[in-house]
Amino acid sequence: MSSLVVCYSEILTATEQLHKLKQVKKSTFLWSVETNRETRAYLFGTIHEPFTEIWQSVSQKVKEALEYSDSLVLEIDLSDRSNVDALLRCMQMDHGKTVQNYLPHSIYVHMRKYRQKLIRWFIKKGESRQAAKKHAYETFANITGGWQTRKPLWLLILLQQLDYKIPEKSSPLDFYLAAYAKHNNKNILTIETTDEQCNPLQTVNLDSIIFAINYTLSYLEFMAEKRDLTGQNNNFFSSSGLVERYQCGDMNIDTVIVSRQKHATRAGFSLGYQIDKKAEQTNFINQF
């Protein structure tokens, strides 16, 4: 018997100026795990990116380990509809309440304005106004579906996923692995419950979350305006660099988690020194 454990590897960004890229051996992100039993186990490091961007570059050794393993161990199995339903329920506010119960009106308006900016962006890409509206709605809903009834922390997390990049429609690598395992009748095990996934930061107060929502929205609008001017998706948090390093097996380099505020400042974004400083000090903003 053998099993493959999938471990999500989160490296948010690298310094703009690395000292020097070290010559390192290309990594497969696959490790053999020693056990006291006859079972052979492997640990595979993944990133939360579309499998279409990654799978072709994944080592054949990984694919063989997946093929010959009897079990797959995931953070949580999102191919199981009951898990998805449980997570969606925990993200929602109590019946009858909406984000307008806790968001200042100006921030709520920001949310609606940003979707309009997405429409203009897709029109600039050559889509018709009708197609652009549909694409913008699907893009917004793909990440923030049901946003008007989201709990504060989950609204922030969803917004920061929009901040990270314009989402593609293909499934993340972990979801693809789970679907493959299910299709091939392999056991799927998980290391976290939906309850653990549901409450990632229980101690963060509402004022801090609303501050982070406002800061993120302001940044999103700033970058949307830059897209309007340049016609390019110049989102500063593009994941392309991360994907390229992963494809090249080159994640074993000097990397640091740099705050969102520092990146935003280098992109030309600022809400003033005091607000920017507060954003930099609010470390939980950068943890999703």
Topology of helices and strands:
Blueprint (H helix, E strand, L loop, with lengths): L1 E7 L21 E4 L6 E7 L4 H4 L5 H9 L2 E4 L6 H11 L13 H20 L4 H16 L7 H13 L8 H11 L3 E4 L3 H5 L7 H25 L9 H8 L12 H7 L6 H9 L7
Parallel strand pairs: 1-3, 1-4, 4-5
Antiparallel strand pairs: 2-3
Helix pairs in contact: 4-5, 4-9, 6-9, 11-12
Keywords: Cell membrane, Glycoprotein, Hydrolase, Membrane, Metal-binding, Metalloprotease, Protease, Signal, Transmembrane, Transmembrane helix, Wnt signaling pathway
Function: Metalloprotease that acts as a negative regulator of the Wnt signaling pathway.
Family: Belongs to the TIKI family.
Describe the structure in your own words.
- With 288 residues, this protein is an alpha/beta fold.
- The chain has one domain.
- The protein has 12 helices and 5 strands.
- Strands 2-3-1-4-5 form a 5-stranded mixed beta sheet, covered by helices on one side.
- The chain is globular and about 60 Å long.
- The chain starts with a strand and ends in a 7-residue tail after the last helix.
- Keywords: Cell membrane, Glycoprotein, Hydrolase, Membrane, Metal-binding, Metalloprotease, Protease, Signal, Transmembrane, Transmembrane helix, Wnt signaling pathway.
Q: Specify the number of helices.
A: 12
Structural class: alpha/beta
Radius of gyration, rounded?
Answer: 20 Å
Work out the helicity level: 40-55%
In short:
The protein has 288 residues and is an alpha/beta fold. It is 48% helix and 9% strand.
